Structures are given as C-alpha cells and as structure tokens.
C-alpha cells in the first residue's frame, strides 16, 4: 500500500513560509473506527522539498506525532517564488506518494492583496460603528433634546 499524498497548505511570512501538513487518511477500520496512519504505523516521518530558482532542496526528515501539524521554513530570499512538496513515510512502509507542489512568493509585504483586505476591513468596522451610534441615538441613549415628562421630573 502506498502512503499519501499528504495535504499541504502554505502561507507566506516575512522571508519564510509556514507549511501546514495534514496526513493522508487511511482506509483501515477497527471496531467501526477509522484508524489514522499514526494508529497504524506508530512511527511516521515527513520530508519537505523546497524548490526555487536555485533548484530543489530536501530538508531533513522529521518525526510526526499529530494528524495535522505546521512547520516554518525560514531564511528565504525576499521577492522570490518558492514551491513546497511533502512526503510521508513509515518505518514499515517506504512506498510514498509526494504531495502536489504548492507555490507562493516568500515576501508577502509587497503583495497588494493584503492592503485591499486591510482597507476593506477598516471600512466595514467604520460602518458597523456608525450603525451602532445611529441606533443608540435613535434609542435616546445620548443627545437627548426632548425634555422629560412632568411626572418624571
């Protein structure tokens, strides 16, 4: 049986990439419970390969203890595209299918999409505050220009 491919997601950070890996699901059941690869093999390892214009670089193998885990690849050059693929192996099973390549620019500071999200968020918050103030004004919480009835004075 082949292991994989794992599910890989990457997000850029400043001169680094945050890699989240989800183990492939197994199809083995025990007492109606779907077993994870950790349940089956106990000892699992993953290896990440990073690809850039400099070529491919395999990172050292690391042990896996959870179904979903994250790692950060640091000291990357800014303004350069990086691609990541991961493979999961077991001590009893060396047959593995690597994940598809996921690519991202290493430096997110220069990406205009983030600025648009920040501006849109600020506009939304401003509208929410303005709406809340309007409701409070209509409800008479402040700026009361009506005098109280004679019975309440």
Name some characteristics of this structure.
2 helices; Immunoglobulin-like; 5-stranded antiparallel beta sheet; 3-stranded antiparallel beta sheet; 153 residues; flat; alpha+beta; 2 domains
C-alpha end-to-end distance:
85 Å
CATH class of the largest domain: Mainly Beta
Instruction: Tell me about the largest β-sheet.
Output: 5 strands, antiparallel
Low-confidence stretches: 108-114
What does this structure look like?
The chain has helices at residues 37-41, 112-138, and strands at 7-13, 16-22, 29-30, 33-34, 44-52, 55-58, 62-64, 68-73, 81-90, 102-105. The protein has 153 residues and is α+β, with helices and mostly antiparallel strands. It has 2 domains: 7-106, Sandwich (Immunoglobulin-like), CATH 2.60.40; 110-142. The strands form 3 sheets. Strands 5, 6, 7, 9 and 10 form a 5-stranded antiparallel beta sheet that branches. A 3-stranded antiparallel beta sheet has the order 1-2-8, with no helix packed on it. A hairpin with a 2-residue loop joins strand 3 and strand 4. The longest helix is centred in the last third of the chain and has 27 residues, at 112-138. It starts with 6 loop residues before the first strand and ends in a 15-residue tail after the last helix.
